[in-house]
Design brief:
alpha+beta, elongated, 6-stranded mixed β-sheet, 4 domains, D-amino Acid Aminotransferase, Chain A, domain 1, about 25% helix, 11 helices
Length: about 450
């Protein structure tokens, strides 16, 4: 991160930026006479003046310019020269709620992004979809004050980069892209079907993807029941294991159906695949995929799968920060913590719960994390910008590694806390902040 500067207002008739001669030399302003001074998405044109009376960390800026830029004066900032532009920053935002009321009720938890930050600098804004005023390049939201540790309500300049954690209407996404370009991350909500379509062309990932189809009509489901015998039906945009249905072909054409949300221990039996498909089609609530059922590794009748906590940090590269094992509630076909499951760090779980050797467990975790990073890089090649993912993987009873899902809307990584590793949770939150600062040009 660059050096920290203190902003000092001055009253002058013309827009001015005054700096100490050594500061001008350090940031390349010794021969510069005029440039555009930026904060967030606002800019003013200023004259450059060298002033021997200023300290190296002081920047003197005309009061009118500071007000036009909406720069918070109490924060330490860095500078970045880019041709005829000089950026004050970083200014980053977390789009954390749909409504202003929703943001007000949860803004305090966003301090997790700054937990353990040794030298906070620049602006960190919390905002909601409702609080965006893109016509004015402004947001109504909260600015983090590192001195008090409080979030201060106000109207602020639209930040230079944004971490999106909530769905956006298409029109708002397009307007944000017009203003920020490729500086909004997790900017596209990837469905389960799109995940399969996007990753399947990558040779390194293809062997790890369960066979999957989009259910467009009842005969798609009938064909798959007969062909695959044992399948899962999942909503394309579902989460937390909700809405998953298992169908299994049996002798004489019968089909057994389990609805996990009802915790059905005994399946409902249909005489034919056609009847099972017709029943399901009449009751389905959304678009769905059918997927080859992976027979997950079991422990005491608990399904076991894994979540790799994946994020980009200030380097801009994907990092696997840790891997958590999830144990489902006994008899359930999903392992989600919200559905009665439990979590442990993967290495510990494989060794102490499943009896693996330390070496075997370490190799398995390394393979999972390498596959997760490969999936993140593949997403980068697909176009939309991501920086925060929860990658769900599974080992089947034969030891095959499967890539089940890329959680990309808001994988806030509280599963690390469930697994007893709070420091891992904070490390991920800091990584999200550092990646936003990198996109803003200041890491």
């Amino acid at each position: 991160m660059a050096e920290r500067y203190e902003l000092l207002p001055v009253l002058r008739a013309r827009p001015l930026l005054a700096v100490a001669p050594r500061t001008a030399e350090r940031i390349g302003l010794t021969t510069c006479r005029r440039l555009y001074l930026w904060y967030g998405t606002h800019a003013v044109e200023v004259e450059i003046e060298l002033d021997n009376t200023l300290e190296e960390q002081e920047l003197c800026i005309t009061q009118d310019s500071l007000e036009a830029l909406r720069v918070p004066m109490h924060l330490p900032f860095a500078l970045r020269r880019e041709g005829a532009n000089l950026h004050i920053g970083p200014s980053v935002g977390i789009l954390a709620a749909r409504t202003e009321a929703g943001l007000a009720s949860m803004v305090h938890v966003l301090s997790h992004h700054l937990q353990g930050e040794t030298e906070p600098r620049g602006a960190v804004l919390a905002c909601s979809v409702e609080g965006l005023d893109l016509a004015r390049n402004e947001v109504r939201g909260y600015l983090y004050n590192p001195r008090s540790g409080a979030w201060e309500a106000g109207v602020y300049s639209l930040p230079r980069a944004l971490f999106k954690r909530v769905p956006l209407p298409a029109g708002v996404r397009e307007a944000l892209h017009e203003r920020l370009g490729n500086r909004v991350f997790n900017n596209y909500l990837l469905s389960k079907w799109e995940m399969h379509q996007w990753l399947h062309p990558f040779a390194a990932l293809r062997p790890h993807l369960p066979a999957t189809i989009l259910l467009r009509k009842p005969r798609d489901l009938i064909r798959w029941i007969k062909q695959r015998q044992d399948i899962l039906i999942k909503p394309t945009t579902g989460s937390q294991g909700q809405g998953i249905v298992r169908m299994q072909g049996r002798d004489e054409g019968q089909v057994a159906v389990w609805r996990d949300e009802a915790n059905d221990r005994e399946p409902r039996l249909f005489p034919t695949a056609e009847q099972a498909a017709t029943w399901w089609w009449e009751h389905k609530a959304s678009a769905c995929i059918a997927q080859q059922r992976i027979v997950l590794m079991q422990h005491h009748e608990q399904a076991v799968d894994f979540r790799v906590l994946l994020a980009k940090d200030g380097s801009g590269e994907w990092q696997a920060f840790g891997t958590v094992a999830r144990f489902g509630a006994p008899g359930r076909q999903v392992s989600n913590i919200s559905r009665g499951g439990r979590a442990m760090m993967a290495q510990e779980a494989l060794v102490h719960e499943l009896g693996w050797s330390e070496q075997k467990a370490a190799r398995a975790v390394a393979d999972m994390e390498a596959l997760a990073v490969e999936a993140g890089r593949a997403l980068d090649a697909c176009g939309p910008l991501y920086g925060n993912l929860g990658v769900d993987l599974a080992l089947d009873v034969a030891g095959q590694l499967w890539l089940l899902e890329l959680n990309n809307l808001d994988p806030n990584h509280t599963i690390a806390i469930d697994a007893g590793n709070r420091s891992l949770f904070y490390a991920l939150k800091r990584a999200n902040l550092h990646y936003a600062q990198r996109l803003a040009g200041f890491y």
